[in-house]
TrEMBL record:
Organism: Cyprinus carpio
Protein name, UniProt field: Anoctamin
Keyword Ligase: no
Pfam families for the chain: Anoct_dimer, Anoctamin
Membrane topology term: Multi-pass membrane protein
Residue ranges, annotated region (Disordered): 704-724
Chain segments annotated as transmembrane: 105-125, 145-171, 221-238, 279-306, 327-350, 370-394, 415-434, 493-516, 544-568
């Protein structure tokens, strides 16, 4: 029968020794629970901990191309390896079992010193982490987090390189881009309709030259390739992590580990009522409340953009009237960032309150429910403004003479002539950099320092110096911050993974920014664990739990989101349709004129025409606006044209084809790469053979001893006959 941790504690309680330590800290006491060596050995057998055997199977390296490449990469990256790796340190080799109190204390001190020098230093950011020593000091759960973070950061290197190449391709081809050249050509003399009612006047399309050139940096032919590449990259990252996790499980002896958490609550207890009650509360109250709050925030930012744009257009100061769009975009993105950071804390508290109300039966159940609720709330909070910009802004505005209004007089905002992709890029850039700089790094550095300073202010300086000289290590660690778990660390990385994969088609530099952040994040978290936090209780774990499922789901959703971004947010499909269906010479010459519809200014609704109609110095009879509609002199004025329906069909077809092709390629890569490395699989198989040989040898020894004791043959027992 399998022993649970609670039963093991009850069984071994008579074998424990409890020592009470006197301390100079007022109101604080320390207890040390010591178990003899034989008790630890017996528990190791119960936990199936492996120890070295006399017979060792050595797996020879194969001669395949993949294994040769791996050996070459190991030699190349040898200088990047830490001085202390997966094996024992040189100091530990001289410390033999069983450990005395002095030896154990010496190991902890040496391990902490090595971790500080070889892991928690910013000067060795280019080296691999000593994951083996991290696991020995902090436990498997913390070790797996830093191993996963290291794999994620390592995999960001090729994604960042390809993203930079795509961005440089846009920079190199911007001067040869025909649509942006047509926008910047003053000879076209295209007069555009006002961007707002009354305060805004007619404007020249050439004034949008800078926006059109900047949009080409992120909206070009390489965008589609990069979206496909990132979908395959996400799959390869997941497969690479599974292989790395399996290797760590084998090295750390976790292949046969099973979670020992069991429920001691009756299945028909009152906690079931709390489960249903909390689920109903989350679905019927929290989710609608979050949707309402999120939409209200988005709507408030929309009103801010509309009102500020109108105010800047009405301003008589020339400084305010220049770069109106850039000013409104940037300030609105900063406001969104501040709201996201504030609401993250609110949603985190709501998720924890709901999880506590459920009264989960185990720590694992509590953690998984808390993670799921926190992820749903924070993910929606971070990505709702981005989703609005990508898929809703500029699509429900109406047309000149028949615009849609909210709250009576506020006209729905429209995108720039080059589309909303540039604004989406700005929002992604500010949100990603802001969250990494403010929420992740400054909060992780500033808040612990502030708490530590407040704790030290409660103690007199002279008394504190005396305590520093006389206190033991465990007493000094009491002044460090408490360990609150790995969920905040995982959460910020999962949100970042969403930023990197979900809308990467509009922001190819996202992997580069994520890479730079994570290089600092690894050492920042390492220093925090070594110097700022109390040493957490070591917890065994063989995987990263529900976080892998969330990563898998994000990578699947990213394919669909990027398909819609390329199809509906960018001008990739309209350019493709025009070039192959409407262009007279098969090029993009005339594309800008093709995307603009005509509007007769006499059809403005009363009270919406410009206050200064002669702003350009001449009378305007017809203005242009970006849409595919019939001209006012046609039989169906201002109705959607045939080009609109042709482009819509092409967009939907692209989404279907892109999604299925990329999903098929991702599944093929998933099938192609085995989850277990070949050398680990062979080693596990040979170890099983070794165990079988050992059991067979023991059985033969038992039979031989029984034969020596009783050499007489045993008579065969006859089978009793059954009576009819």
């Amino acid at each position: 029968m399998r022993r649970t941790p609670q039963r093991a504690v009850r069984m071994l309680r008579p074998c424990f020794f409890i020592f009470v330590f006197q301390t100079k800290l007022p109101g604080v006491g320390f207890l040390k629970i010591h178990a003899p060596w034989d008790v630890l050995c017996r528990e190791a057998e119960f936990m199936k901990l492996k120890m070295p055997t006399t017979k060792i199977y050595k797996v020879s390296q194969g001669s395949s191309i993949v294994e040769k490449v791996n050996m070459f990469l190991q030699k190349v990256t040898a200088p990047l390896q830490p001085k202390v790796g997966e094996n024992q340190t040189e100091n530990e080799k001289h410390l033999s079992y069983p450990f005395s109190r002095e030896k154990m204390y010496l190991i902890l001190v040496l391990s902490l010193q090595i971790l500080y020098e070889q892991w928690a230093s910013y000067s060795i950011f280019y080296k691999y982490q000593p994951i083996g020593l991290v696991r020995k000091y902090f436990g498997e759960k913390v070790g797996l987090y830093f191993a996963w973070l290291g794999v994620y950061t390592q995999m960001l290197i090729p994604a960042a390189i390809v993203g930079v190449i795509v961005f440089l391709y846009g920079c190199a081809t911007v001067d040869n881009n025909i649509p942006s050249m047509e926008v910047c050509d003053e000879r076209n003399n295209i007069t555009m309709c006002p961007m707002c009612d009354r305060a805004c006047s007619y404007w020249k399309l050439v004034t949008a030259c800078g926006t059109a050139r900047a949009s080409h940096l992120f909206d070009n032919a390489a965008t589609v390739f990069f979206a496909i590449f990132m979908a395959l990259w996400a799959t390869m990252f997941m497969e690479h992590w599974k292989r790395r996790q399996m290797r760590l499980n084998y090295v750390w002896d976790m292949t046969s580990f099973e979670d020992g958490e069991v429920s001691h609550t009756h299945p028909f207890s009152v906690t079931k009522l709390f489960d249903y009650k909390s689920l109903l509360l989350f679905c019927l109250f929290v989710c609608p409340m979050q949707i309402f709050v999120t939409l209200a925030i988005v709507f408030g930012v929309v009103l801010y953009r509309v009102s500020i744009m109108t105010a800047l257009h009405m301003s008589s100061t020339p400084t305010f009237r220049t770069n109106i769009r850039a000013t409104v975009k940037t300030t609105a993105a900063i406001i969104n960032l501040i709201i996201i950071i504030i609401m993250d804390e609110v949603y985190g508290a709501i998720a924890r309150w709901l999880t506590i109300m459920e009264v989960p039966k185990t720590d694992k159940s509590f953690e998984e429910r808390l993670i799921f609720k926190t992820f749903i709330l924070k993910f929606a909070n971070a990505f709702t403004p981005i989703v609005y910009l990508a898929f809703f802004r500029g699509r429900i505005i109406g047309r000149p003479g028949k615009y849609l209004y909210v709250m009576g007089s506020y006209r729905m905002e429209e995108c720039a002539h080059a589309g909303c992709l540039m604004e989406l890029c700005i929002q992604l850039c500010i949100t990603m950099l802001g969250k990494q700089l403010i929420q992740n790094n400054l909060f992780e550095i500033g808040v612990p320092k502030l708490k530590k300073m407040l704790r030290q202010r409660k103690i007199d300086k002279n008394h504190q110096e005396e305590l520093n000289r006389t206190l033991h290590r465990h007493e000094k660690d009491h002044f460090l911050g408490p360990f609150v778990g790995l969920n905040p660390e995982y959460m910020e990385m999962i949100i970042q993974f969403g930023m990197v994969t979900l809308f990467v088609a509009s922001f190819p530099l996202a992997p580069l920014f994520a890479l730079l952040n994570n290089v600092i994040e690894i050492r920042l978290d390492a220093k925090k664990f070594v110097t700022e936090l109390r040493r957490p209780i070591a917890v065994r774990a063989k995987d990263i739990g529900i976080w892998y499922t969330l990563l898998r789901g994000i990578s699947k959703v990213a394919v669909i989101v990027n398909a819609f971004v390329i199809s509906f947010t960018s001008d990739f499909i309209p350019r493709l349709v025009y070039q192959h269906m409407y262009s007279p010479d098969g090029t993009l010459h005339g594309f800008v004129n093709h995307t603009l519809s005509y509007f007769n200014v006499s059809h403005f609704q009363p009270g919406t025409e410009p206050m200064v109609p002669m702003h350009l110095g001449y009378k305007v009879d017809v203005c242009r606006y970006k849409d595919y509609r019939d001209p006012p002199w046609s039989d169906t004025p201002y109705e959607f044209s045939r080009e609109f329906w042709a482009i819509l069909a092409a967009r939907l077809a692209f989404v279907i084809v892109f999604q299925n092709v990329v999903m098929l390629m991702s599944d093929f890569v998933d099938w192609l790469i085995p989850d277990i490395p070949k050398d680990i699989s062979i080693q596990i198989h040979k170890e099983r053979n070794l165990v079988v040989e050992l059991f067979m040898k023991q059985e033969r020894g038992k039979k031989y001893r029984n034969t020596v004791r009783d050499p007489s043959p045993q008579p065969l027992r006859s089978r009793p006959s059954s009576q009819a």
